[in-house]
Design brief:
Helices cover about 40% and strands about 20% of the residues. It is an alpha/beta fold and about 325 residues long. It has two domains: about 160 residues, Response regulator (Rossmann fold, 3-Layer(aba) Sandwich); about 140 residues, Rossmann fold, CATH 3.40.50.2300. It is elongated. The structure holds beta-D-fucofuranose (GYE). The site of beta-D-fucofuranose has 14 residues, from helix 2 and strand 9.
Length: about 325
Amino acid sequence: MIRKILCILCIIMMTVSTGCSKGEDETRDPGLVLGFSQIGSESAWRIGNTKDIRDQAENYGVGLMFENANQKQENQIAAIRRFIAYKVDVIAFSPVVEEGWDNVLEEAREAGIPVILVDRNINTEKSGLTTCLIGADFYREGVMAAEYLIRKADALGMDQINIVEITGTENSTPMRRRKAGFQDTIRDDPRMTVLESIDGDFLKSRGAECMRYFLEKYGDTIDVVFSHNDEMTIGALPEIEKAGFAPGKDMIIISIDGGQEAIDVLKEGKINCVVECTPKLGKELMETAIKLKNGESVQEEIHPDEAVFSDEMDVASIAPRGY
Ligand code: GYE
């Protein structure tokens, strides 16, 4: 009991989204305490994801202990240990990389606290460390990016296509799965060559660095830039322009996320295609946490529906994105 009171006090100190429930809706659970370890604030996607989780915690009357790990796995592990010490009802986290979680998740299991994976997955030999995953189908996103490229190459009658790839954080789920989905889809198309893939860590500054490196090494032989998120794409574009090329015309630019800034650049014609990855996972997270607290079973994987925005459509009609 004392722990529970301490926990609630702590939540009040740690988060602006502590629920003061006035709810009639029976899906609300004002008694539920959810510990959530976020990766960081590296992108518009991540900031939108944090906002959505905070907003939905409030909507559902869930007490949220929110911790930002500033991109470091050790900070996430420490946050999960604090959630265990405070005896939260449910733990959720977005693992920055896939490996290295077994020990801390064993500790959560021993404490009897269910764990939800949000956005990204883990890689482990052990079973039953987590209950479910709520996040995008990153492999499918890679496939959709490649399918767009194949259609575009057909439309332009291209016969040799040199691609440079700026990937997300090494060993993270979106990096691995987006790369694999893209590769698997272009593999049998003899026109396609990936000149090189390098790690841009999902950061704008790294996107610019990677692009400078590619331009120096491959220059005007580059036909396509495939970038694993909008931030890196937006970092790369000015470098392409500085080197004397017109992005969207001299080079085909493909991005993933679909944040407002990238959609605006798509409308300007400097990006050709943006595969959507929605950060709005908060509602599913709250509903799943409530079910787990009530001892109900939950779906193992929940993937939101996602679209493709591109120069094949009437881009002016794309509705405001909200992130
Ligand atoms: O694409 C990127 C973010 O894990 C889906 O992480 C997420 C990715 C997203 O930083 O912008």
